[in-house]
Amino acid sequence: MIDWPLLRSVSRSFFLTIRLLPRAVREPIALGYLLARASDSIADTSDAEIERRVEALQQLRHGDTPPHALEALIARQDNPDEAALLRALPHLLDQLDASPAKERLEWVWGHILRGQIFDLVRFAESPEPLGAGELDEYTFLVAGCVGEFWTRLCAESLEDFSRCPVEELVPLGVAYGKGLQLVNILRDRQADAGIGRIYVEDRDFDAVKSRAREGLECGLRWISAVNHGRVRFACVPPARIGLETLERIAVDSGRVKISRDAVRRVLAGAIPALWTRGR
User: Which residue, 94, 126, 158, sits at the end of a domain?
Assistant: First the structure.
């Protein structure tokens, strides 16, 4: 059973939409999110040595629970919700082993772990900005693979998921995930540069912003092909919020944040998706 209060404590917005997903996919998607969120907490424990974080992530990638490393990382968490999430990780791994979607979950989390390790090691070894190929690989590993995971899981688990063949939907889902990650990268680029992480150089800003928009538009095409209203409703807000965020991001802007009123407006605007079918 998913610990829904734990999920709500680490992502209120995701919690609101995921509870509306069809039962067949709700728990595996929630479990996948919690696993990825837990390993992200490990990767982001900035006052722990990079080597220690990488070692813990590598152990997880190979199916091992690193109890001693976890204890040390839990002790370094300032946020009690992050600490609770890491304490729950052994139980989450037990749920992973018991899940009917274990193979799909291991596939997607394995890619995410690779991306988190790449991010830590790459900037530890070199302060140079990411190249175009590195950026594309990184965004696939930490987000594009999630679009493929959702697509294949839903197609396998939900009857009449879409009139569109799954192999046509997968590239749209991948592009959507990568587009969402590019929005995050562009939004946070000034703060990231301050700690020595340059994902996008100024000269590439406009091109990457355009690529992010294309990815979000692919997401809207993915959504329009889906027949299940609750899946559509869960996926519309991130695309709409991402597009609104992109409109506010400039090459020299700081971190852009959409207001709560704007988020409520987007959620309200997504309600019709509950009753429409794919085209």
Answer: 126
